[in-house]
């Protein structure tokens, strides 16, 4: 067995060293050796337009009319979205909007309901 820590994201035992980081080949998660030694992980905190922390399963409200790319549809101000999921990337909220379908939103255009 290797002395390297398991991946904190997927618990894979096949991690390897890459400079000052550990890398998981199964989920492509990277974390620093110092975070592994401290037992802490760099977690991204997603905040809405008012600064409230968002979590998976929250209900949010859209604060600005948002055009749907590639369509003539518009997500109107005040649209409530239930059961959001937080993801990594520029559009950090994954959700399903009634009448439109699956969408990705930026947290700067929503507020926690």
UniProtKB/TrEMBL annotation:
Residues 46-113 form the Protein YjdM C-terminal domain. It comes from the Bacteria. Residues 4-32 form the Protein YjdM N-terminal domain. Coiled coil: none annotated. Pfam families: YjdM, Zn_Ribbon_YjdM. PANTHER family: PROTEIN YJDM, PROTEIN YJDM-RELATED. Belongs to the YjdM family. This is Protein YjdM. It comes from Methylotenera versatilis (strain 301).
């Amino acid at each position: 067995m290797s002395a390297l820590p398991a991946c904190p994201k997927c618990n894979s035992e096949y991690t390897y060293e890459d400079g000052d980081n550990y890398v998981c080949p199964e989920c492509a998660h990277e974390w620093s050796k110092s975070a592994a030694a401290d037992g802490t992980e760099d977690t991204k905190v997603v905040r809405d337009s008012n600064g409230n922390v968002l979590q998976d399963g929250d209900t949010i409200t859209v604060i600005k009319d948002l055009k749907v790319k590639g369509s003539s549809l518009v997500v109107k101000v005040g649209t409530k979205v239930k059961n959001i999921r937080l993801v990594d990337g520029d559009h950090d909220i994954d959700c399903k909007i009634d009448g439109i379908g699956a969408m990705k939103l930026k947290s700067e255009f929503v507020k926690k309901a």
